[in-house]
Prior knowledge:
Helix content is about 15%, strand content about 30%. The chain is an alpha+beta fold. It has a 6-stranded antiparallel barrel. A 3-stranded mixed sheet has the order 3-12-13. Strand 1 and strand 2 form a beta hairpin. The longest helix is centred in the last third of the chain and has 11 residues. The two termini are about 40 Å apart.
Amino acid sequence: xxxxxxxxxxxxxxxxxxxxxxxxxxxxxxxxxxxxxxxxxxxxxxxxxxxxxxxxxxxxxxxxxxxxxxxxxxxxxxxxxxxxxxxxxxxxxxxxxxxxxxxxxxxxxxxxxxxxxxxxxxxxxxxxxxxxxxxxxxxxxxxxxxxxxxxxxxxxxxxxxxxxxxxxxxxxxxxxxxxxxxxxxxxxxxxxxxxxxxxxxxxxxxxxxxxxxxxxxxxxxxxxxxxxxxxxxxxxxxxxxxxxxx
Length: 246
């Protein structure tokens, strides 16, 4: 398949840039595999589509504020999007504008948090070494912003209104740079209904990484390589895997 076969016009007014006030009121497409029929439904109806002894698997990864807005020594605006942790103080990141960030360039993100460019590659990625008066994770929580998909626009100077909403209600394991979006529609009430119906709920941790944002730069889709994500099985999921191995 070629990428040109997937081109289509999506009017801007149809892009869901703001979340619904009630998470579980999102639309849901229900497919009957036996008849190949499909129906328009609502996510709040999900518990009634599940039966006792079904298994619902939730990804409990938690998005951290991976976007940093800063200033270089010359006063130019710089945006850093953290992609992969290298060690306690350095990260691989996407930088904008990367061409103006040679190795050695310093960036200030806020009082007590700055960084230096260690490496720069041709694909827009850099390696940033941070200097922080606080533990780095605390500093990122203080100065970072929620990493949203590129088609959702926000005012850089506005309050980070997505910090809580762009997160599942069961998120607990920090490490993702994007939310597992299918889970954003769950509410505590929905999960309670699911359990009351006898559905087994288990959790895994799959940290969503840059692969979900990475643009496709090839015409032939078979040549596109998606970066692998980091995953951890916990609780009952880990027990089930160990039993399968044995």
